[in-house]
Amino acid sequence: MTGTSNSQALAAPATGPNASPDWVEIILGPNDPSEVWRSIFSVLRNLALDLGKASAIDKATILPDRLLAESAWSLWDQFAACAPSVIGGLKQFWVKAAPTGTAVLVLDALSLRELPWIIKGARQRNITPTAIEVRGTETPTETDRFAAALGLSGRSKLFNNAAPGSFVFGGEDTHTDVWDAPFPDCVSLVPAAPRIFVWHKWPDEPLIHLYDRRDDGPEIVAKETMHQLTSDGFWNLVDRLRQGRRLVITGDHGYAVSKSFSSEITDADTVKLLRETFGARRCAVEPPDNPWPRRHLPPLVCRRDGRLMVMGQRKWPVQGGFPHLCHGGLSLLEAAVPFIELPAI
How many C-beta neighbours within 10 Å does residue 99 have? Predict the structure, then answer.
């Protein structure tokens, strides 16, 4: 495999089938926050590719998520400023001098669990990625926040090539769209434009939200994403986008499997506060007349631009049960996503 990020060298130990990263040294070591986040992303990349199975990737993030939430929570405060971001990577990709066009395919809620299946699909078709990276999402880890970072009031503003002038990647030669059709049906929707930016609602709306409260939801999602990302239908679409264009495949945010979270809050007063503020969600608007109390240590939430985000693998009892699949908060599998560049054909 080629095109790996230079940040791999910052990761403390090598990962592999029989190796475990030294998360304590990586997260609590003396490096500055930017180096720490590059190291975390590099190790996550290797773990995702090595482990493959979604449940194994979930298990592998328990320790680093707990360290970040309970010992190094200031790193989440510095995440937006210090972690290599999807938006930053797309800007670099978009302006790179090349004899070919550019295309971006954003898959809604694409997580690191899906990274190995995209790479497997590429290998099966003799495609060598130009780069395989992990990048940070916008926070809160929600669709609207990512859309705002693109200069949009919402994802729908990209629909039918009607992006406003505020769109970061706009231009006369750029075609935009939002798709929700099956991948094979999207092949004919790809125009003969030199620059394409499309956002597909899969797997979030048609899959994750459909099974988020089923006990077997995580297993169903894992099986279906593996099937789709290695299917001919998906790769026919990828090849159509790559005709005369370099292509980046990435996500607006990942998702958490709260069913496997390592911490369930049981203190009655704290549970009451979380229910009143968040309900069964991982983020919420902070009421200006009723700010979040600062009595918790380690803190339970991180503030950003008037929003509150739950840090780490924390859930609490709510009526009807906490969703097994969710996003909006600050855990590694919500806030870190694949960033894969494929060459033009």
Answer: 7
